[in-house]
Amino acid sequence: MYLRRSLFAAGSVLAAAAALALSGASAASAGTHPDRASQVAAARAALSRLSVPGTQHHFAGATQRVRGLAKVTSDNWSGYADTGAGYSRVSSSWIEPAVTCGSSTTIAAFWVGIDGYSSRSVEQGGTLAQCSGGTASYWTWWEHYPANAVQPVGFSVRPGDKITASVIRSGTSYTVKVTDSTRTANSFSKTFTCSAKSCKDTSAEWIAEAPSDSSGTLPLAHFSKWTASRDAVATTSKSGSISSFPDSEITMTGSSRDTKAAPSALNSGGTSFGVTWHHST
């Protein structure tokens, strides 16, 4: 899912696409149990609309660095991004946060990735939480943007599950791995190739996101604090933590420049931080 850095009115909703993705959960709660193939097909159809074209965007907020840290704002990302060149590995662990659902359709994604901050491709994987009709649904997923849409994998993720995620590059080969050690059926490893011309390897990210579709940024689900821990990153010449590289602290803001989600400061080792939800739009 691509970083949209510019600020604009984010009043769109996921509408029929989200309802379709969650139709399995809604039907199950009503006593009807659709087969898994139907759930997967419905989710793929809905999530395919979450990718948006990589059109020009610009940073909002200050980009002046203090001790290597830049503080910036985005209308759909909150977390941290390292910048530079030659990134080959990024990883993190977290406990899947719960989302509180009201009557509105809302969505939140938690992921690690390479690229996307200053380039037009993203290689990423993690978990996704969505509310529709008062019901929450949680998935594991991966995406190689813009080559393919969001790919849902595991549909039995629950709040409290222990998640680890990584993206590892070897030459032009990328492996996205997400492990749910609580419910192993949600775990996967996906390998694909991307040429150096298309995938620049110029950033690594640890992000809580309000995904977008063609109409703009979607309402952010009300999630309990997301804590990304054991955060690690490497380039072809160096390995370390988030603070080992030039890093940007990203606060998600709405059209009125008020905060939607904000990251905490990094811990002393640069290996952990939390993102706190403030509001949906």
In words, what does this structure look like?
The chain has 281 residues and is mostly beta strands. The chain has one domain (15-277): Jelly Rolls (Sandwich). The protein contains three helices and 21 strands. It has helices spanning 15-21, 23-29, 36-47, and strands at residues 65-66, 69-74, 77-83, 87-95, 99-100, 106-114, 122-132, 135-145, 151-152, 162-170, 173-180, 188-193, 203-209, 212-213, 216-217, 222-223, 226-235, 239-240, 247-253, 259-263, 273-277. β10 and β11 (173-180) form a beta hairpin.
Shape: globular
Q: Report the sheet with the most strands, covering strand number, pairing sense and barrel closure.
A: 17 strands, mixed
Helix content: under 10%
**Poorly predicted runs of 5 or more residues:** 5-33, 51-59
Cα separation of the termini: 18 Å
Name of the level-1 CATH class: Mainly Beta
Briefly summarize what is shown.
The chain is built from three helices and 21 strands. With 281 residues, it is mainly β.
Please outline the helices and strands.
Blueprint: H1 15-21, H2 23-29, H3 36-47, E1 65-66, E2 69-74, E3 77-83, E4 87-95, E5 99-100, E6 106-114, E7 122-132, E8 135-145, E9 151-152, E10 162-170, E11 173-180, E12 188-193, E13 203-209, E14 212-213, E15 216-217, E16 222-223, E17 226-235, E18 239-240, E19 247-253, E20 259-263, E21 273-277
Parallel strand pairs: 2-19
Antiparallel strand pairs: 1-2, 3-13, 3-19, 4-10, 4-17, 5-16, 6-7, 6-13, 7-8, 8-9, 10-11, 11-12, 14-15, 17-18, 17-21, 19-20, 20-21
Helix pairs in contact: 1-3
